[in-house]
Design a protein that fits this description.
The chain has 4 domains: 71 residues; 240 residues, 3-Layer(aba) Sandwich (Rossmann fold); 69 residues, Glutamyl-trna Synthetase, Domain 2 (Glutamyl-tRNA Synthetase, domain 2, Orthogonal Bundle); 157 residues, Ribosomal Protein L25, Chain P. Helix content is 34%, strand content 24%. It is an alpha/beta fold. The longest helix has 17 residues. About 1% of the residues have low confidence. The radius of gyration is 31 Å and the shape is elongated. Bound molecules: glutamic acid.
Length: 563
């Protein structure tokens, strides 16, 4: 029956992935009957099973369906939808070497959406034996934060990335100035001193503002005044000339450099004229020889602006590779919200467990390989992808399950005395059921009042009925005799029985605090072997979930990941 179920699951997942996530029970049943003609006589049984499997599959998000299909193995008929891995990059033959970049603004921590750009750009650079560049786009002194540079590097390294070159745009200001001056001299840019409303009013009608028509001598004069600090913020901006009838008014004569006197966290007060994103990104993408710009489609309008500047300068625009948005259900991914929460103390830090930042995922015990695999599986799809925690859990489970050692943990402990049991001193259990080489753990047993004493999880204890037989997992079967403040039970036997299995702790239990995904705390007791665990270790508390050790001293605190 398990085999049939597996086969049904395989077809249901395949069918769902071919039909926007929804499998048809009829189609799946048809496939199964064709494959297993012997089942024709038991069609009702088979149909009930298929319906159940299809209902389960249709509840799953697409990534989880893909993930499970990989686990059960696809049907013999491979579909394009199941093809894994990234497509080839176009235009590779046009360039001597593929050069990609990740260009974060160090104004906040990276989250899962940002690392998509990083992982894809890195992956392609490595695939084509090219070059991957890390470039901090820190030309806004008003929001660049010194601590972010290292935090971002750390996240990238943690995800297994390495970069061949690193730049900070705040080191390259003269380069942008030179370019600006050239454009002003050649009449391809101008210094606009109009109030912004006046400028917009004209621009929206495709009309030039008075500054646009001034001579290049006047433009250079104004530019020097900007550089000399003779204009204040908002008084003057350098604009790039574009087609004033461009269908999107936001592209028309876009701003390229502006005045701001706020000290920069890296270079202090050295500059008071700063390039805006679209200007510095264009110059750098060209100067650094970027061949493939891989980024989200939210940059579409920016790309149109940048192309106008490439044309002015007579440069060839790199090959643009776009992908859709990535939303994470129930997670605030916005940098602004995160920064506000951290500043106000509402969040505990950039790694607050409620966040979708890489730091938070790391803290919750996500394995970097799982995040990488998930992002590469989502790939370059242009449709917006919605990522659920469940999908992340499914990916992570695959890696964590293999590695994490098992321990018993009982939240909200309830005491139980077991009478009539043999005089056992300890239990020896495997650290990992599938990996004997991980070794064993020892759970010493305590005696009290001539009985063996254990703690059970409060919830398990509450659900037990008097007279019910259950198994203290991997140890013995007992029958609950009374359910007072301290529970009492009678020993039944040691051999494995088909009864409810409950984890337990006994002598030497260690107090553990669990930080839950909503940042609430839960207390419990774990078996003594957890005392030696080091910070960052990921373990599984059996029947409870994967956790990562957050602090070992003075108290053992773990962060809950997922089941
Ligand atoms: N600094 C930009 C960002 O973080 C880079 C985008 C790009 O040009 O690819 O969104």
């Amino acid at each position: 029956m398990e085999d049939i179920r597996r086969e049904a699951l395989r077809w249901a997942l395949t069918n769902a992935l071919e039909h926007e996530g929804r499998a048809s029970a009829k189609a799946v049943l048809g496939k199964l009957v064709a494959k297993l003609p012997g089942w024709r006589s038991k069609i009702n049984e088979l149909s009930a099973l298929v319906e159940q499997v299809v209902a389960e599959v249709n509840e799953l998000p697409r990534e989880e369906q893909l993930f499970r299909l990989r686990k059960v193995g696809s049907v013999e008929r491979p579909k394009p939808e199941e093809r894994r891995g990234l497509p080839e990059l176009s235009d590779v033959e046009k360039y001597p070497m593929v050069i990609t970049r990740f260009a974060p603004n160090p104004n906040g921590p990276l989250h899962i959406g940002h690392v998509r750009a990083a992982l894809l750009s890195h992956e392609y650079a490595r695939r084509y034996k090219g070059k991957f560049i890390l470039r901090f786009e820190d030309t806004n002194p008003e929001n660049a934060l010194l601590e972010m540079y290292e935090l971002i590097r750390r996240d990238l390294r943690w995800l297994g990335m390495s970069w061949d070159e690193e730049y900070a745009q705040s080191d390259r200001i003269e380069l942008y100035y030179n370019c600006a001056e050239q454009l002003l001299r050649e009449g391809k840019a101008y210094v606009c001193t109009c109030p912004i409303e006046t400028f917009r009013g004209l621009r929206d009608w495709g009309k030039p503002c008075p500054c646009r028509e001034l001579s290049s001598e006047e433009q250079l004069h104004r530019w020097r005044r900007m550089l000399a600090g003779e204009t204040t913020k908002g008084e003057a901006v350098v604009r790039i000339k574009t087609d004033l009838n461009h269908p999107n008014p936001a592209v028309r004569d876009w701003p390229a450099l502006r005045v701001t006197t706020k000290p920069h966290p890296r270079v202090g007060e050295r500059y008071s004229v700063w390039p805006l994103y679209n200007f510095s990104v264009t110059i750098d993408d060209h100067e650094m020889g970027i061949t493939h710009v891989i980024r989200g489609k939210e940059h579409e309008v920016n790309e149109q602006r940048q192309r106008t500047l490439f044309e002015h300068l007579g440069w060839q625009y790199p090959t643009a590779v776009q992908y859709g948005r990535l939303n994470m259900a129930g997670v605030a991914l916005s940098k602004t919200q995160t920064m506000r929460g951290v500043r106000s103390g509402e969040l505990t830090g950039y790694d607050d467990v409620r966040l979708g930042t890489i730091a938070a995922l790391r803290r919750r015990g996500f394995v970097p390989e799982a995040i990488k695999q998930l992002i590469l599986d989502i790939g370059l799809t242009l449709v917006d992808a919605s990522l659920s925690w469940e999908t992340l859990y499914a990916y992570n489970r695959k890696f964590a399950d293999e590695r994490a050692n098992r321990y018993f943990f009982v939240p909200d402990p309830a005491k139980i005395l077991v009478r009539g049991a043999p005089d056992l001193k300890q239990a020896r259990l495997r650290l990992h059921p599938g990996h004997p080489e991980h070794g064993e753990r020892i759970l010493p047993l305590a005696r009290e009042d001539d009985a063996l004493m254990f703690y059970l999880a409060g919830e398990d204890a509450g659900a037990l009925q008097e007279g019910q037989t259950f198994r203290l997992k991997d140890l013995m079967n007992v029958t609950l005799s009374s359910k007072g403040r301290v529970l009492e039970a009678e020993f039944q036997g040691l051999e494995l029985a088909d009864v409810r299995k409950i984890q337990w702790v006994s002598a030497g239990a260690v107090e553990v605090e669990v930080i839950r995904p909503d940042n609430s705390r839960k207390l419990g007791l774990a078996e003594p072997a957890v005392a030696g665990l080091k910070v960052d270790t990921i373990v599984q508390f059996e029947r409870y979930g994967f956790v990562r050790v957050d602090t070992a001293r003075p108290k053992l605190t773990v962060v809950y990941g997922h089941r």
